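Re: weekly structure request thread

Next one in the queue (343 aa):
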Amino acid sequence: MRNFGWMGGWVRVGLTVGELRAVAGAAFGGGRVLVSAERLAGGTKKGVYRLTLDDGSTGVAYVWHPAEDYWPTRAASEPDDLFGHATGAGLFATAHREFSAAGVRVPRLLLAPTAGLVAGEVAVVEDVRGGTLQHLRERDPRRAEAVLARLGEAVRSMHARRRDRYGRPGLDGPGPSGLDGPTPGRPVERVVLDRALRDLAEAAARVERIAAVRQRLADALAERWAAVAPRSRYGLIHGELGPDHVLVDERNHPVLVDIEGAMFLDVEWEHAFLELRFGDAYPALAVDGLDGHRLCLYRLATHLSLVAGPLRLLDGDFPDRAGMRAIVEHNVARTLHQLARPS
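Done, posted below.
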């Protein structure tokens, strides 16, 4: 794998046709020839490549390897931390099974996660060519309405898939090896609070406007956390379900991608993110019975995570630097707005 090359600056070049030929053979059989491999933009933790064969058919390869991961290395997290670095073929495979079992459309597997074909692990999925829901909303709002309605059904279906233990699928009970995953210790809302306080510290160290109100934000987090009542049932969530992580197929069905962050958690965590990312289209995704106190805490925690996280990513060589800075700026403003309107 070639890690870096000069393309108007130092960016990652990625895998070549020659390096991905064995992957195409395993996914599509030996009767067709791989003619091109296009590295798709947008991923931060894995490489995403469109594979085109000599008969015009296509697929998408996901590659998990440190050379494909733009995130800087971080210290080990707590055993019950829900928000560790969610990447890897194992998380993808388990999340794919969970969403499929919930009746939620994800790209069809053409090659299950496999080691030995390239450095790291690789899977191949169908190539959903309708673009993202984000782009569809811009170019064809009426068509996007139908997709949003179906996405709302998918959200409600996955959130109805419940467990009495929070955590990532496959890490919340006995696995194939017979070993248990991490045992939840702190309540979910305490995990979120502790993470939000870490994000606040990082953000305050790098953003003067956050530093100026750091104590007020810490107090607001503590007050919102104190208002949250205990809970012991959790729904399946995507974890980062924005319109850029929803593809549209030829039948106008939403197809969820970047699913490795899936977990069983308070569904309010997902809805705080959905509100932010979908804006005036959020009502199509809303559900009844959400806990207002949890939403209040999770909104502020979400904004802080979207300040600290992108700043951390910018410590590395992620190419879309302007896009990340825009996310930071937007969420700094939303964080400060939370102090003015704590809801």
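Residues 168 and 263 are 4 Å apart (CA to CA). The longest helix spans residues 292-313.
Next request, please.
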